[in-house]
Amino acid sequence: MEDKNQYISTKKLLDSAQSLIVVLPPDPSADMVSAALSLHLSLKASDKKSQIGCGSEVQVASNLQGAHEIADSIGARNLVISFNYHEDDLEKVDYDVRPDGKFYLMIKPKENAPVPDVSNVKYAYSGASADLVITFGIGSLEELGKIYADEKKFLDEAKILSLNISPKPTSFTPNLLHQTSGSFSELVAVLMEKIGLKPSPDAGKNLLGSIYEETKELTSPRMTADTFSAIAFLMRHGARLPNQQAFVPRFAQPAFFETPSDPNVPEEAEEGNLSTGEE
């Protein structure tokens, strides 16, 4: 059953947030990935700052748009440089900022200790920051796995909106959009329509394709009026069902207003008939 108050409060949260982080639990379903990614893409298209993360490798279909934006972390403030090295071999760590503005980090090993191997150096970010975090399908923050382990302090203090297709409550945030729905993609499409968030072209394609799959090509008995409303909303914004051809209107050939001449009648005879009125 739809709770209109949840949509109203969700709209206020999204309208007031300028920076957002969409977070997926480890091993999310294809539908959940499509829904979360589409919400992220549409938020970006509405001139908000958004990022999306998942604590595990995400398996996605080849036709899912924007999947390369899903990161394995949500930190974006601190640059972290890591490599394999034993602390006992380390003499000191130093840095220098040159007049040209370049930053140099120096790792000095002890005498006779091995030199750090540059091929093992990895770069990442930590230190998440956002006005609003949006979670999908979790009952506790611990279910976010690596994401929560990496950014526990931030997530424990962050303003969080929980999205779920089950009405069961959760304790880690009072901000809920928990609606009984056939899929996360349907829930996100309905949310976009109700709050006036326009789906980006890629988001519309992702959502409609996912709804099509989740409803077994629109044959599922679990389909509701909300399902058809979501489909109509996405199609109004340019999305098309899989294998659906673009509609190209065809117009009837306009009628000729002049009777074509009979090629078997000489031109002189035609002119004579016209001047005398003979048939």
Nutshell version of this structure?
With 279 residues, the protein is of the alpha/beta class. The chain has eight helices and ten strands.
Portion in strands: 15-25%
Can you count the helices? 8
Instruction: Please state the second-level CATH architecture of the largest domain.
Output: Alpha-Beta Complex
The description of the largest β-sheet is: 6 strands, parallel
Distance between the terminal alpha carbons, to the nearest Å?
78 Å
Radius of gyration: 30 Å
Sketch the topology as an H/E string, one letter per element: HEHEEEEEEEHHEEHHHH
Helix content: 25-40%
Shape: globular
CATH topology of the largest domain: inorganic pyrophosphatase (n-terminal core)
Question: Under the CATH scheme, which class of the largest domain?
Answer: Alpha Beta
How does this model look, in words?
The chain has 279 residues and is of the alpha/beta class. The protein folds into two domains: 4-77 and 125-236, inorganic pyrophosphatase (n-terminal core) (Alpha-Beta Complex), CATH 3.90.1640; 84-120, no CATH class. It has helices at 4-16, 30-45, 146-150, 152-157, 184-195, 201-214, 225-236, 267-276; strands at residues 19-24, 49-54, 70-71, 78-82, 90-97, 103-109, 122-126, 132-136, 160-164, 175-178. The strands form three sheets. Strands 3-2-1-8-9-10 form a six-stranded parallel sheet, covered by helices on one side.
